[in-house]
Amino acid sequence: MNRSREDPDISRIHIILIYVAYGIIILFSYLAEFFDILTGRQSSQFKTKKGYTPLFKAWDSFYTRRMFWRIRDCWNRPVTGVPGAYIKVKERYSEDHGDTFKYTGKEKECLNLGSYNYLAFSDNEGPCLNDVQDCIKKFGISTTSTMSDIGTTKLHRAVELKTAQFLNKEDCIIFDMGYHTNASSIPSIVGKGCLIISDSLNHASLVAGCRTSGAKVVVFPHNDVVALEKVIRDAIAKGQPRTHRPWKKILIIVEGIYSMEGEICKLKEIVELKKKYKCYIWVDEAHSIGALGVTGRGVCEHTGVDTKDIELLMGTFTKSFAAVGGYITGTKEVIDHIRRNSFGPLYSPSMPPGCCQQILTSMSIIMGEDGTDIGKKKLKQLKDNSNYFRKELIKRGFKIYGDNDSPIIPLMLYYPAKITCFSREAFERGIAVVVVGYPATPLLMSRTRFCISAGHTKEDLDWAIKQIDEIGDRLLLKYEKPHPK
Predict the structure, then answer these.
(1) Does residue 79 contact residue 72 with C-beta atoms inside 8 Å?
(2) Is residue 163 scored above 80 in pLDDT?
(3) Does one domain contain both 252 and 160?
(4) Domain end among 308, 342, 367
């Protein structure tokens, strides 16, 4: 699919009705705002003191108070326990849409279709837990220092070497947080006089890194290889603005799996363009590492690309490995440069030793170094679960985005009222889901995003499909014709 954020794949009648729905919500919200100002009931925390500059934009304040707060129970639901195939959600309520929630003291066990627990390593039992507990007894819970100071233990270096081995790269550097792996390291690679060519649906961390780098940024339509080649050709032909000098570097930035779309990058074609025009490439594997490929080695293995053809292969440990942090792999020369120049390792605390051990144990299981076939079975189960769940939803007439083999499965809701109705109805039936609306998605592209795990059984998925099918009938969510086969 070659879509952009402004090009929704829906009919005109739906577009009109969605705008009408938002228009009605905004109209009634402004009426409520007017009467609150008239009666003096407007919340003082959103008022600007006389003589002071407003701390926030008027629309941001209005949207938060009049629209988001009315439905905020659909987000940030507190959970307890581990995010396995099932998860316990603490029940709460709000009196008259007040500022705070109150807890009922009860917990509800829900089928977990919202966590990135792709390979089901987040359980509180088994080899990962045992190794992590032993590690904490030996190394403690934190290093309380940065990687560049005294926060690098032999465990941290072991994670770097193991990740480099896993991806067949020369070296690796790890970070305590996935977001600033991108945000802090892109500026160390490119700067003034360089060009970044970025996919239009790249993650916010990539956008932040691009903006702070000082490089010129050009966006190409999502996964559109033809448009990408045109951007590259124009950039080479025209050179830098005003001077028309050749660019110092041209860096293409893409993701393995796009987290809001469930789509897999057309990496093989993009790598061919990179080689043809002598560019560099940065691939964000946050969602694809451990989730794609026969041996879990990510989008490169899935698309048949040699990892040596990728100059900068970035990923996170927060999904398939059930830990925290991120990594960048590449040649030793490049990784040494990032280690010296990225502000991430210089100013942020290093990864807790227990998390390092979680990564080492889970990665060893994936690689089969534990002497079992558990990792192989998990990878196959994840792929089978993802494709089965996607196929069954499509058969029932739901509008589903994404590609086969992707564990991220977006089901399109479109209408604002259906966001809240779907979330509340699913929770009532015992399913924990993530719903996404504006501004995290374009205004017309609201959705719920299912995340499938190897920990789900076929019985779990069949039960969830039955519940979602009933919700779809009730909320009129079946925008496609059902497929009998």
Answers:
(1) no
(2) yes
(3) yes
(4) 367
- Asked if 284 and 256 touch (Cβ cutoff 8 Å), the reply is yes
Residues 358 and 417 in one domain: no
**Same domain as 197, residue 169:** yes
pLDDT at 334 over 70: yes
Q: What is the count of structural domains for the chain? A: 2
**Residue 143 pLDDT level (bands cut at 50, 70, 90):** confident
Look up residue 327 and give its two tokens: 């990594």
Instruction: Report the predicted TM-score, pTM, of the whole model to 2 decimal places.
Output: 0.91
Q: Is the pLDDT of residue 54 over 90?
A: no
Amino acid letter at 361? T
Judgement on whether residues 465 and 423 belong to the same structural domain of the protein: yes
User: CB neighbours (10 Å) of residue 420?
Assistant: 17
1: confidence class by pLDDT, cuts 50, 70, 90:
very low
Assess whether 176 and 315 both reside in one domain. Answer: yes
pLDDT digits (tens, 9 = 90+) for 343-393: 888 888 899 999 999 999 999 999 999 999 999 999 999 999 999 999 999
Burial classification of residue 13, based on how many CB atoms lie within 10 Å of its CB (0-12 exposed, 13-18 middle, 19 or more buried): exposed
What pLDDT score does 46 carry? Answer: 62
How far is it, in rounded angstroms, from Cα 396 to Cα 432?
21
CB 367 within 8 A of CB 378: no
The arithmetic mean of pLDDT across residues 173-180, rounded, is 93
Of 323, 339, 367, the residue that ends a domain is 367
Asked if residue 109 is part of any domain, the answer here is: yes
Instruction: Give percent of the chain with pLDDT exceeding 90.
Output: 74
Same domain, yes or no: 416 and 270: no
CB neighbour list of residue 157: distance below 8 Å, 6 or more residues apart: none
Q: pLDDT of 447-456, one tens digit each? A: 999 999 999 9
Rounded Cα distance, 425 and 10, in Å: 24
Q: What b/e string do you get for 257-294 counting C-beta neighbours within 10 Å, with b at 16 or more?
A: bbbbbbbbbbbebbbebbeeeebbbbbbbbbbbbbbbe
Range(s) of the domain holding residue 139? 127-367
Whether 324 and 218 map to the same domain: the answer is yes
Give the number of C-alpha atoms closer than 13 A to the C-alpha of residue 458, restricted to the C-beta side: 5
Are 269 and 396 contained in the same domain?
no
Residue 322 lies in a domain: yes
One-character DSSP codes across 363-427: HHHHHTTTSSSHHHHHHHHHHHHHHHHHHHHHHTT--B-S-TT-SEEEEEEESHHHHHHHHHHHH
